[in-house]
From TrEMBL:
This is Prohibitin family protein. The chain crosses the membrane at residues 7-27. It comes from Muriicola jejuensis. Its main location: membrane. It is a single-pass membrane protein. Keywords: Membrane, Transmembrane, Transmembrane helix. Residues 25-189 form the Band domain. It is found in: Membrane. InterPro entries: Band_7, Band_7/SPFH_dom_sf, Prohibitin. PANTHER family: PROHIBITIN, PROHIBITIN 1.
Length: 271
């Protein structure tokens, strides 16, 4: 009986040590995450193996695991940039991105966990300044926002692709001009719209005048052709046909044959 505590104490101690070791060694990677393994007594950050995927993992207690979110994320940025003529423009943009999964070890080793602040945001700012500097405030306000958005995306992607970051989209959410410039642009756009409306009315009126001229010309040509085709003989025949139809009418009338011009009958009636 005296020997039991001597055996039990080491066993309890071993169990406690094992529990501590297991708790230190157990790593759970959550949904949409991946882990970068750091070997303390090895070569440091593991870059030649895939990162640890979702789920439960056991690692040596003296090693470390750095967990990264690998699903698509969004970062917002408000910037002050200059247009081509030196006016200050406020730009509100966001970017959709995710770390490149297979290169997660390289990203951790070279850029660290703050890679968004160290790499992505400075690159977006630089690209935005470069792109916006090519356009006037009027272009930024009215017609070129989609082009600006596409150019910022292309310039940013060109850089961050080599920094182990996958850029999916850049969105220009708002462009704010100085109030006086905005009002001047709006007045100009309104005047241009009114000018376009006036030109449209002139074109419509001109087309209507052309239509009426063509219609009148057509009628004149038809009358000239008809007049040229009507001979005295045809007129006499038409007069006789009309006389015969009138003669058959029940209304009272007097027909004087051969007394009209060109020998056509004269019709006298009370109706």
């Amino acid at each position: 009986m005296d020997k039991l505590p001597k055996i039990a104490l080491p066993a309890v101690f071993i169990i406690i040590v094992l529990v501590i070791l297991i708790s230190k060694s157990a790593i759970t990677i959550g949904s949409g995450e991946a882990g970068v393994l750091y070997r303390t007594f090895g070569d440091g950050v593991v870059t030649d193996e895939p990162p640890l995927g979702e789920g439960f993992h056991l690692v040596a207690p003296w090693n470390k695991v750095f967990v990264y979110e690998v699903r698509q994320q969004e970062v917002f940025e408000k910037m002050q940039v200059l247009s081509s003529n030196g006016l200050e423009i406020k730009l509100d943009a966001s970017a959709w991105f995710e770390p490149k999964y297979e290169a997660l070890g390289k990203l951790h080793q070279e850029k660290g966990e703050a890679y968004v602040q160290r790499v992505l945001l400075p690159t977006i700012r630089s690209a935005a300044r470069s792109v916006v500097g090519r356009y006037t405030p009027e272009q930024l306000y009215s017609s070129k926002r989609d082009a600006i958005q596409a150019e910022i995306y292309e310039e940013t992607k060109k850089i961050v692709d080599g920094q182990y970051i996958q850029l999916n989209e850049v969105l220009v959410r708002d462009v704010t001009l100085p109030p006086t410039i905005k009002e001047a642009i709006e007045r100009k756009l309104k005047q241009e719209q009114e000018s376009l409306e006036y030109e449209f009315r002139l074109i419509t009126a001109d087309k209507e005048a052309q239509r009426q001229i063509i219609e009148a010309q057509g009628k004149a040509d038809a009358n000239r052709i008809l007049s040229a085709s009507l001979t005295d003989k045809i007129l006499q025949d038409k007069g006789i046909e009309a006389t015969l139809k009138l003669a058959e009418s029940p209304n009272a009338k007097v027909i004087v044959v051969g007394s009209g011009e060109s020998g056509l009958p004269i019709i006298l009636g009370n109706n």
